[in-house]
Amino acid sequence: MTTQTASPADNADRPRDRGGDAIGPPPQRPTLVPAARYHSAAFATLEVERMWPRVWQLACSVDHVAEPGDYFEYRCGPYSVLIVRGDDGALRAFQNVCRHRGNTLCAGTGSGLSELKCGYHGWTWDLAGALKRVPNRKGFGALRMAELPLHPAGVDTWERLVFVNLDSAAPPLVEYLERVPSDVAWNRLGEFRCYATMTIEVEANWKTIADGYSETYHIQTLHPELRRCMDDVHAPQVIWGHTGKSEQFYGVQSPQLKETLSSRDVWDAYVYTQGALMGVEEGTPLPEGRPLPGESVAEVIAERTRAFAAQRGVELSWAGTDQLMRLHQYNVFPNMTLLTNADHLTTMHSLPGPDPDHGELVMMLWTRMPPGAPRTRPADVRMTAGEAEPGVVLTQDITVLSGVQRGMHQPGFTHLTLSNEERRVINMHRNLDRYLDLPEAERITGGETP
C-alpha cells in the first residue's frame, strides 16, 4: 500500500478566507459564570417561570407528524405540548391539558388520531382544538362549548424541523433563528429525513449537557482521535444573538500536533471517528494508491462520501470537498445545536430533568434522501447514559458529564472561568441573564474585549 506524508496540499480544500481562529480577539479577562446556575433549585425555577415558556424549542421532525392524525408530545420540565397534524393537513400545537380537570390528553407519539379524548372523564376535542363532546353536559348548567377550546401553543417549521413556543407574543420563528436559515440554505436541509430520535438520560443539568456541544476547547484533551483528522484551530465562530455558529474542517490534522501525520494516519482517524458518514467500517484501509499526487486525504474522503450517497440514490456532484468536509455547527438558544455538512445532519437538544442535577440529551438522526423517497416514521428510543453508545466522540462527551455536574457542587467552586473560545457558552448565559431579568449582582462578569 502506498502512503504519503501529509503536506500543505492537504489543506488546499480549506478556503483561505474561511480560516479564522476558534478564539478570535482575546478579552481583557475571562468570563465568570456563577456555578449555582447549574445546580440551584431556585435558578431552575426561574428558568421554568421566565425562560422556557418564552423561547422557541425544537420539538420533533416533520417526519413524526407528516400525515393527518399523527401526533407528538413534547415535554420540557413541567410543560407538555401536543403537536397534531389535522384532518385538513394543518400542523397545530396545544397545551396538553384537558380543560375539565387538567388531565394530560395524549402521551408519546403515534398516528391515527381522529379526535382528542380525555381518558379521565371523556371530554373530547377535534384535531383543530374545538370542544365537541362533554358527557352528562347538563350537570354543568350553561356550559358554552365554544368557550372551551384547547389552549393553543405556537408551532412552526424550518425545513423539516418542528418548533414550539408557549408564548403567544413570541416573535416569529424565522426572526428567532436570525441568520441561521440563510447561512445554511446552500445545504438543502429539506432533503434530509429523520430516521431516529435517541433520548439519553444524563446525571447532569441541561446546561452542562448543552455546554458540551457549544465549544471546541475540549477537543485537545477529550477527543485526541479527532485532532488527527480535524482542524480545531482554524475553526471560526460567530454570534448573532439567540444563535451562533462554529465551523471545523475535517480530513486534515490539527495544526497543534507537533508530529506530521501520514495520509494513512489521517484516514484511519477519520474512519475511526466518522467512518459511518462515508459507509465504511472501522479498520477499512486507505484505498491503494491514494491520495494521488496533488490530491488531499480530504478529497479522497469526499469522493467516498459521494459514492456512499449514490448507493441510496442521492446525487452529490454539486457538493465540493469543502461542503462535504467542513462541519457547520449552529447553536440556537437555549438548548439546541445543529451539525451539518453536505451529506450529514444531526440535531441535538438538552432538556431539564426532574431536578437540576438531571437532564436529557435528545439526538435526532437524519439522512439525505432522493426526491420522492417514501416517508418512514422515526424510531424513538430512550436509554441511560451508561447504555448509550452513539459513536466514539459523542460517547466520550456523554461519559464526562456526570463528573462535571458533581464538580459544580463543590464549595470552593463558585464560578466557571470561561475563555473566548467558549463564547457560544457565554452567549447562552448572556441570554439567560436577559430572559430571567437577573439583578446585576447575579449576572455573568468579565469577558470584556479590548
Structure, briefly:
With 450 residues, the chain is α+β, with helices and mostly antiparallel strands. It is built from eleven helices and 22 strands. It is globular and about 85 Å long.
Radius of gyration: 24 Å
Mean pLDDT: 92
Shape: globular
- Terminal-residue CA separation: 53 Å
What does this structure look like?
The chain is α+β, with helices and mostly antiparallel strands and 450 residues long. The chain contains 11 helices and 22 strands. The strands form 4 sheets. Strands 12, 13, 14, 15, 16, 17, 18, 19 and 20 form a 9-stranded mixed β-sheet that branches. The longest helix is centred in the last third of the chain and has 17 residues, at 392-408. It is globular and about 85 Å long. It starts with 30 loop residues before the first strand and ends with a strand.
Write the layout of secondary structure elements.
Layout: E1 31-34, H1 41-51, E2 57-61, E3 71-76, E4 79-85, E5 91-95, E6 109-110, E7 116-117, E8 124-125, E9 131-133, E10 152-158, E11 161-165, H2 173-176, H3 180-183, E12 192-202, H4 206-212, H5 219-222, H6 224-227, E13 230-231, E14 237-239, E15 243-250, H7 263-274, H8 297-310, H9 321-325, E16 326-332, E17 336-341, E18 344-352, E19 359-368, E20 379-384, H10 392-408, E21 415-418, H11 423-436, E22 445-446
Parallel strand pairs: 12-20
Antiparallel strand pairs: 1-21, 1-22, 2-11, 3-4, 3-6, 4-5, 5-10, 7-8, 8-9, 10-11, 12-19, 13-15, 14-15, 15-16, 16-17, 17-18, 18-19
